[in-house]
Amino acid sequence: MTAALLLAALLAAPSARAEPTDEEVRAQIAAFLGSIDTPIRAEQWRALGPKAVPILQELAEDHDKLPTRRARALEGLSHVGHDREGKLMVAMAASESEPPVVRMSALRGAGRLLGPKRLVAGLRPILESSSDSHVRATAAEVMAHRNPKAGCASIADQVNKEPADRRLAFRHAMKACKLDSQAAPQ
Amino acid sequence: MRRALAALTVTCLALACHSSSDRRACATARDCMGIERCTGGFCGVTDGGATVDAGVLGAGCLDSSDCAAGLGCLTGALGFPSGTCAPACNTTSCPARSVCADLRDTDAGVVACMLGCGTDDDCRQGYACCTAFPGGGACLPAAYCPRTSLPASADLGDSCAVGGTSCAASETCQGGLPFPNGACTAQCVLGNAATCPANGRCIDTETGAWCLQTCTAASQCRSGYDCIPVAGVNGNVCRASAGACSGGPIDAGPPRACTLGDMPPLLVGNAGAAVGPATDPTGCQKNIVCSALPAGQVQELGIHPVGDIVRFNVPAGSASLTIVEQARSATDAVTFSGQVQDNAAVPTLLRFPDGGLVYDDNAIPADNDGGVLPKLLAFGAGGSAATGAFTLPNTSAGLQAFAAGGLPAGTWSVQVNDYALECADPATGCNDGGFAGNTYDVQVLTKPGPLPASGVVDVNFYLIDTAGLTAQSATTNSAVQRMVKTLSTLYKNAGICLGNVTFFNVPSWAQQKYATLDVTNTLPCDDLSQMFTLSVPGNALNFFLVQSLADKTNNSGGTIVGIDGTIPGPSSIGGSVHSGAAVSIADLSLAGCGASISVNCGADSVAFIAAHEGGHWLGLIHPSEQGGDQFDLLSDTPVCKCEAACVGSTRAAKCGQAGGASPTVVNAADCLKSSTDCQGGDNLMFWLLQDGASLGHLTSEQGQVMRANPVVR
Fold first, then answer.
1. DSSP strand pairing (B111-117 vs B137-141)
2. Which residues contact B214 (CB under 8 A, 6 or more apart)?
3. How confident is the model at residue A74 (pLDDT cuts 50, 70, 90)?
4. Residue B534: CA atoms inside 13 Å, Cβ hemisphere, count?
5. Are the beta carbons of B191 and B202 closer than 8 angstroms?
6. Which of B131, B448, B483, B683 is 20 to 30 Å from the Cα of A8, by its Cα?
């Protein structure tokens, strides 16, 4: 067991580092987008710095790239971007022409970049009108985690509109809002 | 891949945030609403007992419209006088000043937060302060308060006819997995032994919380029951000796003769009907499943507590052996260096017939350059709780030692073990003191030798995210066909061809629950592990095709595109909590596809991911991890080290701990250089896919490890 547990402990050790070069940023992004089963931690994305923003945005918007790569680029962008990228996230999340995995990543990214009020304002229409139940459910999750006070009422309304067999997709949001499917005893 | 549990964010809702400032002033009852009265200048509900603000938890109600958002009304018809507003707590915690009460055995049939109390005076009329539930007193109808301080039962645990009336008045005769041949028992409250007879303890069984008979020796238990300790319970209890074996494979079909790289026919499993329960099961599923291998290859050693030394026979000439531990009663996690980790089910002190040590999980040497671990005879890599598999050989030294005549024949021994037992030793650095009372079912699977130069593996695909497909339509879908053909081509590199490739539908509840999979945690009761319990009995690689894999609980990102249940997988054991690998199907299309295999082709990319996760199932780990500072167990796999020759001097300065929170990672370009320390970017098991680099290569020893796994026939 020792090796595995020590690895986990080492990963938690903090330290300082200098800003990476352009070449390093591009190489790191290429590696991060291709990761199969190794999660890229927020600190790793943030360490790329502002130089990564245009690169990641270009990748995210490139429809010739595979959906999971674009989704991963949005994930990275959400850790290094700012308000402007937040608007991009909402726009991509709202686009019915984007693949669901891209839209869901954009929703999570919006949750990291936008303030609570603007987040709910941007995501509520997606919650209420997206054609994909998992996109709607992801919008609910993000709203429930980032701004439950403003979001949970809308989530409750939407859950009530969902067919019974779709409500399980909303259970993470319902849990965060304490609206578990069995919450209402009646 | 194992990540620490994260604390759930508890959000502030109308209920939890209700304060005195929310109270509405009144002069008379006309100023109030519904069933409220004006008491002390404020609207509230009073029925002769304690007064509770209207609408909040514990308030009276006629229906849910009388209750605040997030609360429902437990009505008078359900046995709650004048009704009571309550939220559920089957999956969430209760607000302050309330207690979670499991009332599934009552007319209410819910698990709900009830108003907290110290005495009956704190409760409304018709309610008593019930102290049976953990967390303090709860205002409940007296009839719903479980009895406590019960005298000993004369027939607790005795044999009985299920459904009959031969048990004592407060007990029932239960059957099923926890009670083979029927046993007298009573429902109880977990964490409160006083809700059982004095000679019983409350145990979380496969079918709920039931009172089991206490014991101090095996002779006190009926045939078929063992006297064992249970985590969190004082003393031993009589528990069923072994889990039931599942039935035979579904639609496995006759074995298909195949040639390396050929295109297998695509089959529809279970005649197209969904596999798994028709409705979302309540509670955590932790099945003990018997191997589907022929009887001559399986030794069922029964249930054993950790620390037990068990013995088994290895026939002459065996190519490999696999030890599978499945939890009968085990803690899910341990805390090491302040971090919660899966309580890995991993055997230790594996010994040859002559007593020579093969593997000691407590004596794993450090391996900074990739040259140490391959010299071990075996290595336990899984790290998974509840179900763990250990296959030998899986190292270079093991492959070389047993290449000629197979494994030494005779009686081997091994100690049943998990991390919790290891944590019981203070020297390990664990923070929770460990636990030495977990119990596991142990099976040993042997594979006849010699190790073949080629083999066949059956593959099952489960359509969790349909992507518009059904099991039927998948078999004729062009992108699916390309994906399978590429998978076949990739495994050709290991000397493995695809036998039966079968597609299964799953129930709609599973599609909704798992399509966007939460992989925050990988403990046995988390979504990933519970999804794998849908896998059918039989001996196949089980791939669960989902839309995405993300951290939903923390909502902090960290998405991945594949994950294996454990390394190696519990081959021939379908339906356990780790009997599968999850793969994102989001890229499945013919976009970007040409004549040759490319990771820019959606179907090929999915095949690469499946082949990679299947490689983990078959016992392989990454030749080089992303930091370029950890390596696999084989000496012929190319390594890629985080050092100047591979990553350049600037990035080399940030390798490992020197890089702080974001150390240099080795990418594919770094690992395709002439230096022998800078290779492996083209290997199937490299940690990433990259255009122009990923070629799906596998070494000779990687192929041997894969073919040594019992899922390959």
1. antiparallel
2. B199, B200, B201, B235, B236, B237, B238
3. very high
4. 33
5. yes
6. B683
- Band of the pLDDT at A22, cuts 50, 70, 90? confident
pLDDT tens for each residue of A138-184: 999 999 999 999 999 999 999 999 998 889 999 989 988 987 544 43
Q: How far is B223 from chain A (nearest CA, A)?
A: 36
- pLDDT for the residue B329: 85
Establish if A67 touches chain B: CB-CB under 8 angstroms.
yes
Q: Which of residues 295-334 of B touch A (CB under 8 A)?
A: none
Taking an 8 Å cut-off on Cβ atoms, the answer to whether B12 and A141 are in contact is: no
Whether chain A has a CB inside 8 Å of the CB on B598: the answer is no
Q: Please report, for residues B231, B279, B618, B631, the alpha-carbon distance to residue B580 in angstroms, rounded to integers and kept in the order given.
A: 27, 21, 11, 24
- What is the rounded distance in angstroms from the CA atom of residue B685 to the CA atom of residue B621? 7
Q: What is the pLDDT, as a whole number, of residue B20?
A: 32
Q: Which two tokens stand for residue B124?
A: 């409304």
Q: How far is CA A42 from CA B262, B551, B630, in A?
A: 42, 12, 21
Report whether pLDDT(A48) > 60.
Answer: yes
Which of B512, B545, B683 is the mutation pick for testing A, counting most A CBs within 10 A? Answer: B512
CB contact under 8 A, A75 and B280: no
- Residue B382 pLDDT: 82
**A180 to chain B nearest CA, in Å?**
7
Q: Which residues of A touch B1 (CB under 8 A)?
A: 37-38
Flag if B70 and A44 touch (Cβ within 8 Å): no
Within 10 angstroms of residue A157's Cβ, the number of other Cβ atoms is 11
In order of A165, B580, B658, the CA distances from B610 in angstroms are 29, 11, 34
Give the residue from B195, B168, B709 showing the smallest Cα distance to B456: B709
Largest CA distance in chain B: 95
pLDDT in tens, B64-81: 778 887 788 888 878 888
Within an 8 Å CB–CB cutoff, is residue B662 touching chain A? yes
pTM listed for this prediction: 0.76
**Contact indicator for B396, B372 with CB cutoff of 8 Å:** no
User: Number of H helices and number of E strands within chain B?
Assistant: 10, 34
Between CA B684 and CA B699 the distance in angstroms is: 10
pLDDT for res B29: 64
Q: What was the ipTM of the complex prediction? A: 0.89
- Tally of helices (H runs) and strands (E runs) in chain A: 11, 0
Nearest CA in chain A to B74: A185
What CA–CA distances, in Å, run from B662 to A17, B26, B341, B589, B639?
8, 60, 22, 34, 21
Any residues with CB less than 8 A from the CB of A14 and at least 6 apart, and which? B660, B661
* Rounded alpha-carbon distances, angstroms, from residue B244 to B105, B240, B290, B302, B303: 26, 10, 8, 11, 12
* Exposed/middle/buried for residue B59 (C-beta within 10 Å: 0-12, 13-18, 19+): buried
Low-confidence ranges of chain B (pLDDT < 50): 1-22, 244-251
Query: What is the rounded CA–CA span in Å between residue B64 and residue B411?
Result: 66
A121-150: average pLDDT = 96
Amino acid at A101: V
The backbone torsions φ and ψ at residue A14, rounded to the nearest 5 degrees and listed phi first, read -85, 160
